[in-house]
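hiii, so i know i said id send this last week but things got crazy w the move. better late than never?? heres the sequnce for the chain we talked about at the cafe, plus the structure i predicted for it. fair warning i was half asleep when i ran it
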Amino acid sequence: MLFLINIYSDSSQSAFKYLKNTEVDIHNVLVMTEDFNIRDNFWDPMYPYHSTHSDLFIDITDSLSLGLSYPTNSVPTRYSDNDQSLNSVINLMFLRYSFKELDNHTIHPEWRLALDHAPLTITISIEKQHILNRKHSIIKGSIEEKAFIKNVIKDIIIIDTSFLTNIESLEKAINSFDKAIKSTWEKNSKIINISRHSKS
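okay and structure toks below
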């Protein structure tokens, strides 16, 4: 299972301190994003300073196997409502290392409407999967199960192991046995429909 973490950290960075000081057992984090409230020239080229909070932050994201995502458009994420403050980049996105399905995120200032923060989006591709709705099954304790077991034992007994002198001959014997088992399974099993009540 993959997780998405949505973070809001206040001006004292209480969220990061909590994550750092608490034993957090979170694996398979895919995306971590939102308002991190840290200005730093590492992700905001218009800001000339480095924040000590960002070092703590990078340590935490690295421990979760996450790396900073760079936006496809370099624009602010927070927009000031007065002339005294400059627009800034404090909404960030971190993506899982070596996850090829993920790409850079996009900042959408045109979507913020009356808000002072611009939404961030990323496209996560989902591969099409063929979901089976029927399968072969043998009921436990049935006549078919007894016949299946009897035939498997027979298939094992008749395996000729006298010629197994190399890897090729071993693989040939295994493949023959595999085909015999599949044939026996299909012969003795019944096709049933898979439903939400079906056992795994």
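btw The chain has a mean pLDDT of 85. thought thatd interest u
miss u guys!!
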